């Protein structure tokens, strides 16, 4: 099975995994959404469909009742873009590299480009998160040190046989939050993380499972994206501890860690900024204004 040519569309499936991942892994920006795992895990939430046109992989989705399309790797031909705008409200997730190479002709086509700040991914130096150096990370180091002094802890790489223990953390996290959030995507990520090509760790406090995280490589292995982090809030400093410990456990070839977007949540934005991002993976939206 392969991705059909436009205007035919198909849903995302494991039969397409190799083809999709081979294309997306080459994207230099390291956009967190553009992996097979991320698209697959959120396929139901956004009703994703796929098509292709020459070298362009095109993804159709829906959010809040509005259809959008994405083209991670190449800008489709002008005629295709015009047709897409007849059935889609906007063009989502245009990477910086794609915009830089095509901005002039997009403007000529009548595409109005705008920054999508709420969806910028936060990019950090792996070494900063692993070492928490200098004055700017003083508070983070204090939280991690207080955690280490307060609790007996253990870290293990996630494996299939540890799935039940990770699930106990996820179920308690859901109960504590009082809402689903990304529960269903996180549950499926745990169930299928090996098949999806993800890696992560599980953390124990006093011998009991208390936290876990999962992510995957982007941008030809330069960037590691953290897709899921779940922990029990009863243990003060556990998120800071997990953040630092997991970054330290990653291979040295990962220069950056992508901790995804804040989706316009001010509290989440402030929390992400306290880790002093190295920069952002910038994304843009396009609207057709002929």
Task: List descriptors.
7-stranded mixed β-sheet, 290 residues, Aminopeptidase
Characterization of the model:
This protein is of the alpha+beta class. The protein has two domains: 10-120 and 284-288, Gcn5-related N-acetyltransferase (GNAT) (Aminopeptidase, 3-Layer(aba) Sandwich); 121-260, Aminopeptidase. It is 36% helix and 28% strand. The chain contains eleven helices and 14 strands. The strands form two sheets. The protein has a seven-stranded mixed beta sheet. Helix 8 runs antiparallel to helix 9 (183-192). The chain is globular. The protein starts with 9 loop residues before the first strand and ends with a strand. The model has no long low-confidence stretch (mean pLDDT 97).
Mean pLDDT: 97
Number of extended strands: 14
Number of helices: 11
Helical content, roughly? 25-40%
Question: CATH top level of the largest domain?
Answer: Alpha Beta
The end-to-end distance, rounded to whole angstroms, is 37 Å
* Low-pLDDT windows of residues: none
* Biggest sheet record: 7 strands, mixed
Calculate Rg over CA atoms.
Answer: 20 Å
What fraction of the residues are assigned to beta strands by DSSP? 25-35%
Count of the separate structural domains: 2
Globally, the shape reads globular
SSE order: EHHHEEEHEHEEHHEHHEEEHEHEE
Structural class: alpha+beta
